[in-house]
Specification:
The radius of gyration is 17 Å and the shape is globular. β3, α1 and β4 form a beta-alpha-beta unit. The longest helix is centred in the N-terminal third of the chain and has 14 residues. The chain is an alpha/beta fold. Strands 1-2-4-3-5-6-7-8 form an 8-stranded mixed beta sheet, with helices on both faces. Helices cover 45% and strands 15% of the residues. The protein has one domain: Alpha/Beta hydrolase fold, catalytic domain (Rossmann fold, 3-Layer(aba) Sandwich), CATH 3.40.50. The mean pLDDT is 91.
Amino acid sequence: MLSIKNEGTTLAYTDEGSSTTVAPMVLVHGWGCDHTSLKAQAEYFSRTRRVVNLDLPGHGESDAPAEDYTMADYADDVAWLCAALGLHAPMMVGHSMGGNILLELSARHPETPGSIVLIDSVLFPSETLIEASAPFIAALAGPDFASAYRSGISRLHLITDEIAAHESVFAALPRAPQHVLAASFVSQLIGQDIVAAASGYKVPVAYVGSSHLLADLQKLKVLVPQLVTAQVLGAGHFSPIIVPDQINAMLARFAAVSGLLQLLTRRVMT
């Protein structure tokens, strides 16, 4: 992997492919994972465009300093990396917590993305879900946090997902230390103002859900009128790994029509 320092913190990433005719792509993984969870997308799209696939701070091979690990902090880090690498108006794809980060990035750094795709991100969690998460949050702060993490992640799979990939792909998770997992989970679940983050978007936005939808897309549509949505067939939360062909086809179609969607977005915003 490549690396770059941002105010003393090393960020690890891969940078593959090239093109002067299509927008680059930035891939942002989810909570407790690393760039390998979006490896299938990086390999596929780097055939036709430049693709940067990063390890978020505190994850994978990036440094994990003692910080707050909020969605806003992550958004600033990703925007900084885009600027440092000279990525102009990239198509930005975020899985799970990566989508929450991109929501924040688009609000804080509207000049950075050309378009964004959220894959099964938790948006507008219910009070019931937040209350039910209290024991899990406490477990993340305990001595057996890694087991708590894996138990929580397993609930996001379908039975067929377990057969296809659970043992081989997720056995090594989490790929982040305890202080990162605890802080970032709370931030994405209850510390982010989705309404403030999603209001006033001026770029095309897509949401790709799993078989068990984790977002209130009606609420999101009110805030983001240009939103387009899709849902994978027969896959749980880790659809980029379980059904990469479905995800890649959706991303490719979104990229192909992004120019038209940009025009429509401008009309909606005016």
